[in-house]
Design a protein that fits this description.
- By secondary structure, the chain is an alpha/beta fold.
- It has twelve helices and 21 strands.
- The strands form three sheets. Strands 4, 14, 15, 16, 17, 18, 19, 20 and 21 form a nine-stranded mixed beta sheet that branches. Strands 5-6-7-8-9-11-12-13 form an eight-stranded parallel β-barrel, surrounded by five helices. It has a three-stranded antiparallel beta sheet with strand order 1-2-3.
- A hairpin with a 4-residue loop joins strand 14 and strand 15.
- It binds pyridoxal-5'-phosphate and lysine.
- Lysine (LYS) binds next to loops.
Length: 420
């Protein structure tokens, strides 16, 4: 069954009509299908069954608490990258001992909060971070569980803006330097060396770069063991891609099958940090056509969503499929058009030069595969309130984040008399 399919001529998310949601909540609105997210999570668990493993959802992809809570209830943990994410993960019911903390720029207060919470592991990304973490842990009378995020220098063959495992990227510790840093970390009094980690990039559609990275990490683990270090965890990060257009990313089962032979020989607990894969295809951005506009050069469909709601096309030139909510939109007539928002930027587009039904004011569109890095990367640019978020489960649905109001736009701002 298609996740989003037409019933009686109307696009549905699971058992719920998108027209019904748009009428009740307005647009633009993100709609997430919970069963699809759960099914993806379960696919990872099944693929790695029999191996000691923990799926730490990379919550940067979609940090709605209802989404986080859904994975936590299935035994999932979280990969966090900030103190804000730590707070949200804990509030959504993710146990601290299932949280790993990545990122090149962890601030002192963030390290302190995560230490006090008792997270599973800090994926440390620089020599200086080791020193700072050791000092903070010492001051608090705590021991910090660490892995070093190494940069295995493999080509993830993905968009240049989302590759992270190349030597020239800012992420992780150089593979050649990591060995010495491990020996140094093992001597620091307030650190406990727990594991090794990496994350090579996002939206990968091949397994080979993951296998490459795993083999390099496995080699490092063996060398460290010979030095007497007792490692318990190997964290391979996230990065498995989804289908936006014609891509054929590996399934969790195919991914697991290729990694298993190396993992089984290592005897370590496996941590994975999938983000996009768990939520991306399960979400759409629901938007309404506001104007249809034709210039001498082009046709434009101006909708009520814009780059502040979904920045991926503007930022990465990324492709999102678009489907009319009414199956018979355009009554068979088609034309090639750009779907754009109302923001004052030429780069404000959702879809470019796409063959579409002829769309009219009031028509509803679903921008597909928008569950990951959609709302999470949204902003209030042009003073536009952020969209609502809705979670669907079977025939049920609920608003899991209300649309921002005009008042929300000015919250926290202060004007003193001398300013005006
Ligand atoms: C450290 C880390 N882990 C996990 C992820 C999740 O990546 P993805 O959404 O591609 O699975 C990212 C983002 O690329 C990341 O930086
Ligand atoms: N935000 C990106 C991917 C970056 C992943 C985070 N490290 C996207 O929309 O595809």
């Amino acid at each position: 069954m298609d996740l989003f399919e037409y019933r009686d001529g109307v696009l549905h998310a699971e058992g719920v009509s998108l027209t019904e949601i748009a009428q009740a909540v307005g647009t633009p609105t993100y709609v997430y299908a919970q069963s699809a997210m759960r099914a993806e999570f379960a696919a990872f668990q099944e693929a790695f069954a029999g191996l000691d493993h923990l799926i730490c959802y990379a919550m940067k992809a979609n940090s709605n608490k209802a989404v986080l809570g859904s994975f936590a209830a299935m035994g999932g943990g979280a990969d966090i990258v900030s103190g804000g994410e730590l707070a949200r993960a804990l509030a959504a019911g993710v146990p601290a001992e299932r949280i790993v903390y990545s990122g090149v720029g962890k601030l002192d207060w963030e390290l302190e909060a995560a230490l006090k919470a008792g997270i599973l592991m800090f994926n440390v990304e620089s020599a200086q971070e080791l020193t700072v973490l050791d000092q903070i842990a010492g001051r608090l009378g705590l021991k910090a569980p660490v892995s070093l995020r190494v940069n295995p220098d493999v080509d993830a063959k993905t968009h240049p803006k989302i590759t992270t495992g190349l030597a020239k990227n800012k992420f992780g510790l150089d593979m050649g330097l990591a060995f010495a840093q491990y020996l140094h970390a093992a001597r620091l009094p307030n650190l406990v060396v727990k594991g090794v980690s990496c994350h090579i990039g996002s939206q990968l559609t091949e397994v080979a770069p993951f296998v490459d990275a795993l083999e390099r990490l496995a080699d490092l683990v063996q060398r460290l063991r010979r030095e007497g270090l007792r490692l318990e965890i190997i964290d391979l990060g996230g990065g498995i891609g989804i289908r936006y257009n014609q891509e054929t990313p590996p399934t969790p089962r195919e991914y697991a099958a290729r990694l298993r032979p190396v993992l089984e020989g290592l005897g370590l607990k496996l941590v994975l940090e999938p983000g996009r894969r768990l939520v991306g295809e399960a979400g759409v951005l629901l938007t309404r056509v506001h104007y249809a506009k034709t210039t001498p050069a082009k046709h434009f469909v101006v909708v009520d969503a814009a780059m502040n709601d979904l920045i991926r096309p503007a930022f990465y030139d990324s492709f999102h499929a678009v489907r009319p909510v009414a199956q018979n939109a355009g009554n068979g007539q088609r034309l090639v058009a750009d779907v754009v928002g109302g923001i004052c930027e030429t780069g404000d587009f959702l879809v470019r030069e796409r063959d579409l039904p002829v769309l009219r004011r009031g028509d509803l569109l679903a921008i597909m595969s928008a569950g990951a890095y959609g709302f999470a990367m949204s902003s209030q640019y042009n003073s536009r309130p952020r969209a609502a978020e809705v979670l669907v489960c079977g025939q049920e649905w609920a608003v899991v984040r209300r649309r921002e109001s005009i008042e929300d736009l000015s919250r926290g701002e202060e004007l003193a008399p001398w300013m005006i």
